[in-house]
Design brief:
glycosidase, BetaGal1-like_ABD1, 3 domains, Galactose-bd-like_sf, Jelly Rolls, TIM Barrel, about 30% strand, 8-stranded antiparallel β-sheet, 8-stranded parallel beta barrel
Length: about 600
């Protein structure tokens, strides 16, 4: 049994001075087969602790239904870390930010219009309590006071960046204590007055988050906590990417210099991220500082380990600084994981999304006078299709979507009219012939906001559809969650390249399927050159979104998702496919990253939080 405490400005582990040198690895962004590889690389860099958030929406994807296996097996991840000789910091706060969908909150919360997030709203607290009753008993046996590896547990996450309900923070603290969490509790916030005032409790250890200006940040912290140990719970050593932006990178020597400053001042730290991983499926988040900005599938973060787990120049720089301060590697660096080019794959089978038979396999229709957001129909992720009939004639009128969340493709009698996007919601011109025409609007949830005051982010169409000033009513709505079981039943038709119809960037959405043989298994990367926007699956596993808007130009496929022999690849292409209907699996991702042997010249892009 080990106990982490503090006294006279320093941590004590079983009564002896101790410094936490932690790196962040999120179990839910890494396939379980690679957890050991990433954790050993953490040790090989000189770290003694791993930190992970716990994502509520991974564990309760549907209300009252809990998942704690596969990529959601947090218990096995923590147990493995302990077996490898690492301590663990756990951050189970209902809200985690993390550039993760809805900051980890489950989308079904938004079905309750009256529910207020992250405060002492009784309805919200009742949902948290039920979840904690399922989660916390799984963690208690893993606490260091019970012989496990967990040294510390977070009460709430960067709460001072959101609110100032101290009663809520006390409720969260008391909820952990009453459920048997008897290790060190802490909060984490940015180093500003309002964040430290709003996000901390006097009787709970406070930590700070920043990416630079260590001396200045610690000085502000000391204005509020003069006796507690210095702890940077998030040292941001890189940054994440949004679609339609450049890839964010930061010079390794700059990261090493700030790390040296932090350690020189006697602080402990958690490096966010040591290994970023991947936002598989529909779990990427989004930001809204000035406008809505969805996060890419890759969560590479320009971290010391790449998205696919290779050490970088930053890894070497960090290891050197840790060694200078007495934190040496405690195991050899594991061998690199094999990467394989499987070559081009022909996707010659197509299943039309809008055919009646396929829509019936994917969803149940709901008739509604008014449009409804996803959550009111029990849907959290994926796409939602709104269909109605509009009477004509109408000539060159304007179609408006009020409250589009987040990207709507509009079709009239099966012909694409255009796209209306949340970040630039310009109306489309529409003309209706005499009689009537079918209007279809396919809306994509591109990720709920994960940070700041706008996290309440329902999806679909929130307010209505109007043509000029006339609101449109009487809709058929279909929730397209795109679960693997439903995808397997789609009706595909094989089409040759010679017979395929010409497609444009505003073509009709459809599923494309193909297969390839694998004689040996290794990591690979799916390049989507020539394709436009959509979602990819390998052997039924949702790899995430692709989009030629960049900066990401390939999807990472971990080797454990493949199998020897035949492998099935499916794309939902929203606009139009490559002329050859081919896609390529390569062994180099070309994501703007550098390895440990590259000559890296990387410029840091200042983050949004500073």
């Amino acid at each position: 049994m080990s106990i982490l405490t503090w006294n006279n400005g320093q941590y004590l582990l079983d009564g002896k001075p101790y410094r936490i040198i932690s790196g962040a690895i999120h179990y839910f962004r890494v396939v379980p087969e690679y957890w050991k590889d990433r954790l050993l690389k953490l040790k090989a860099c000189g770290f003694n602790t791993v930190e992970t958030y716990i994502a509520w929406n991974m564990h309760e994807p549907k209300e009252g239904e809990y998942v704690f296996d596969g990529m959601a097996d947090v218990v096995s991840f923590i147990e493995l870390a302990g077996e490898l000789g690492l301590h663990v910091i756990v951050r189970p706060s209902p809200f985690i930010c993390a550039e993760w969908e809805f900051g980890g909150l489950p989308g079904w919360l938004l079905a309750y219009s009256e529910l207020q997030l992250r405060c002492c709203d009784p309805l919200y607290l009742s949902k948290v309590d039920r979840y904690y009753d399922a989660l916390i008993p799984r963690l208690v046996p893993l606490l260091s006071t019970h012989g496990g590896p967990i040294l510390a547990v977070q009460v709430e996450n960067e709460y001072g960046s959101y609110g100032n309900d101290s009663s809520y923070l006390r409720y969260m603290r008391n909820g952990l204590l009453s459920r048997g969490v008897d290790v060190l509790l802490f909060t984490s916030d940015g180093p500003t007055d309002e964040m430290l005032l709003g996000g901390t409790l006097e009787d709970v250890h406070a930590t700070v988050n920043f990416g630079s200006c260590a001396e200045e940040s610690f000085r502000k912290y000391r204005e509020y906590r003069s006796e507690e140990p210095l702890m940077v719970m998030e040292y941001w050593n890189g940054w994440f990417d949004h679609w339609m932006e450049d890839h964010h990178v930061r010079d390794a020597e700059d990261v090493a210099g700030v790390l040296d400053d932090i350690l020189t001042q006697g602080s402990s730290l958690n490096m966010y991220m040591f290994h970023g991983g991947t936002n598989f499926g529909f779990y990427n988040g989004a930001n809204h500082i000035v406008a809505y900005e969805p996060t890419t599938t890759s969560y590479d973060y320009d971290a010391p380990l790449t998205e696919w787990g290779d050490p970088t120049a930053k890894f070497e720089a960090v290891r050197s600084v840790l060694g200078k301060h007495g934190f040496a590697p405690t195991c050899p660096l594991p061998e690199p994981i094999q990467k394989i080019s499987y070559g081009k794959v022909a996707l010659m089978e197509r299943a039309e999304l809008f055919t009646a038979s396929n829509l019936e396999k994917l969803s149940e229709p709901v008739n509604s006078v008014c449009v409804q957001p996803m959550e009111k129909l029990g849907q959290s992720y994926g796409f939602i299709l709104y269909s109605t009939y509009v009477k004509g004639p109408r000539s060159r009128q304007k179609l408006y979507i009020e409250g589009v969340r987040d990207r709507a493709q509009v079709f009239l009698d099966g012909v694409a009219l255009g796209v209306i996007e949340r970040w630039d919601p310009q109306p489309l011109e529409i003309s209706i012939p005499a009689g009537e025409a079918q209007l279809d609007i396919l809306v994509e949830n591109m990720g709920r906001i994960n940070y700041g005051p706008l996290i309440r982010d329902p999806k679909g169409i929130l307010d209505g559809v109007r043509i000029d000033n006339q609101l449109q009513y009487n809709w058929t709505i279909r929730s397209l969650t795109l679960e693997p079981g439903a995808l397997a039943s789609l009706e595909y038709k094989e089409q040759s390249v010679e017979k395929q119809e010409a497609t444009t960037p505003l073509g009709l959405p459809g599923f494309y399927r193909g297969s390839f043989e694998a004689e040996e298994i290794g990591d690979t990367f799916l390049r989507f050159d020539g394709w436009n926007k959509g979602v990819a699956w390998i052997n039924g596993f949702n790899l995430g979104r692709y989009w030629n808007a960049g900066p990401q130009c390939a999807l990472y496929i971990p080797g454990p998702l493949l199998r020897k022999g035949r492998n099935e690849l499916v794309l939902l292409e929203l606009h139009g496919c490559a002329e050859t209907r081919e896609i390529e699996l390569v062994n180099l991702p070309d994501l703007g990253r550098t390895s440990a042997v590259d000559d890296a010249v990387l410029n840091f892009v200042q983050d949004d939080k500073l």
